[in-house]
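Here is one chain, start to finish.
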Amino acid sequence: MASLVGMTTIRTEFCHCGASLRQTAEGGCPYMNPGEGSCLYNPKEMSFAFHIEKTHGKARAGRLITPHGEIETPVFMPVGTLASVKGIPQDTLEELGAQIILGNTYHLYLRPGVETVRKMGGLHGFMSWNRAILTDSGGFQVFSLNELRKVTEEGVTFRSHLDGSSHFFSPESAMAAQIGLGADIIMAFDECTEYPAERERVRASMELTLRWAERSKRYFEEHKDEVPWGNGPLTSDRGPEEKQVPRFVRNDKNEGNAGEGARATQALFGIIQGGMDRELRRESAERTIEIGFPGYAIGGLSVGESREMTREIVESTLEHLPKDKPRYLMGVGTPEEIVDYAKLGVDMMDCVLPTRAARHGLLFTSEAKISIKQARYAQDEGPLDPNCACRVCRRYSRAYLRHLYAANEVLAQVLNTLHNLSFYLDTMRRVRHSILLGEESRFF
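Its structure:
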């Protein structure tokens, strides 16, 4: 992997369109249309755009424009299930360089409820986060309830894991919930097929997901202007009657917003299903593309299959996805795997592993995985990872981190999570840097 030492300085300048853009090492606006000499980045008109800056083999380094900021890809997205990345406040996420985080529609629908979030200006206002957000449709969580759900053509009836109350999700209601939550990127309602499953069952599930994708898109197109922050500019000069987004969330410098006077909307991604059948995955991809979405996700993985099978399905599915649209691999990834999937051409990834593992004392480093609970670290004066520049590794010893965990101190979970997230985000930044330099990406 390319070293960060000796990196070419990346300048910040203003493009002729008025947008502040980080320029590439070669110079010039990365959104320039060579044929017309005009910049494709127009924040007054764009709610969503994707531009590939550089490729190396199958890997791509790009920029994804959303109403709440520009995202450099490939990107790892921390998971904030309940409008919170467990143990990490929003200002710390900003310091770590998180450009986009996830929210979970199923959990947020149950509490605090969509209307509560909508009245606060959507998730951005509710959680005071002015960068990009992606929400899933709730499908994966609903289908993981097993005995607590019933699937029909219309949708899914399920019981809350909190109190057993009965609820119903359809493509339409899932879209309504995500529009109310106000994420920049939202997902079509899909059925996550169980594994293992007979081919007939996988095909029936795939067909249902395709019909639901059409319904999701139809509802979204009819209601996309109802997004909480979509009725006017996202900047701070809104009148007193336009307070969907609180002032403390907005950026007075107009950085990362859709532009003065913009009427921004969300982007709806389609989801590819098809189980572990490569031919059904191809068919799902082709027919989802026919429906038409600005981005495509590969779903239905990490449901019990081997890692080798996961990789095989991801690689074969990527072959059928458009090269000019962002590709999102849902819920997959050890540090080694996210490097590998980026090399295959995945642009966006999320996984609960860095935060969940941290809470159980499993920490990722450039040398090896460390189970900090082990007694051998009780007298270890060294940093957690000598190659990591995060605040945990700069300040605390392995002995102290082990003590916190053994004593069941809350700070243990906070520091462990901070390090793991920093490690994941830094890993993806190194991968992107390698692609821009035209060098092979590898995991340490």
